[in-house]
Specification:
Shape: globular
CATH superfamily of the largest domain: Vaccinia Virus protein VP39
Largest sheet: 7 strands, mixed
Structural class: alpha/beta
Number of strands: 11
Helix content: 25-40%
Number of helices: 7
Radius of gyration: 18 Å
CATH architecture of the largest domain: 3-Layer(aba) Sandwich
Amino acid sequence: MKESYAALGGRFEYLNSDCGYEQWSQYLIKTLESLGAGASGADIGCGNGYFTRALYKAGKKMCGVDISTEMLSKAEELAAKEGVRAEFLLGDITKLKLTRRVDFAVAVNDCLNYVPQNKLKTAFSKVAGCLKKGGAFVFDISTEYKLKNVLGDNLFAEDTDDITYLWFNKWTGDSVIMDITVFTAAGGGLFRREDERHVQYAHKIPDVVSALEEAGFEVVRTEGHLGAPLESDSLRANFICRRR
């Protein structure tokens, strides 16, 4: 069993092409503008770098950080293809170090769900340490409702010409264990099988707010996906914060 995104890392953006990347990136840009965020930023848990590239194209000096070498390899490839001059670093949010302090940080599409509950404050403290005073921090989580009622104890699958995956989920009470089997074309009608495991942790919104405040952030507001009202059955929660 491989670590998260060993098999899927190079194909993450392709497999998530229907998530509304363009609208999502515009939400980030407008939210950062509303906070008066400066010109330099970090995209933490950048994956294949879509939001890193989008923010760069919006005039920001960007650094992308991810824990997966496979994710970063694809991110560098796509950035070069699009003429994006961003820095990409291998790193874990709970041990985050950047080459310079930045004006803002974003962590998009479940990055914080991969952080256990008892390490949230550590993660937020590391982000705060990489931000200038007053710096903005915008991130999201998949809600406990989503992990328990949508993903938990369910099976998902996708079959394309060059990749097929089977995604088995188990709700544990405070997290979802995701076992994913990936088949990729290997030529000659053959497919290569790889297995990897993900664990996403369910965070209660008051606990996230408390950890942020303890780490030195002011929570400006919380909201649902793309600024929608945050309801009890919302699938995603966004946190818009500023380092004190």
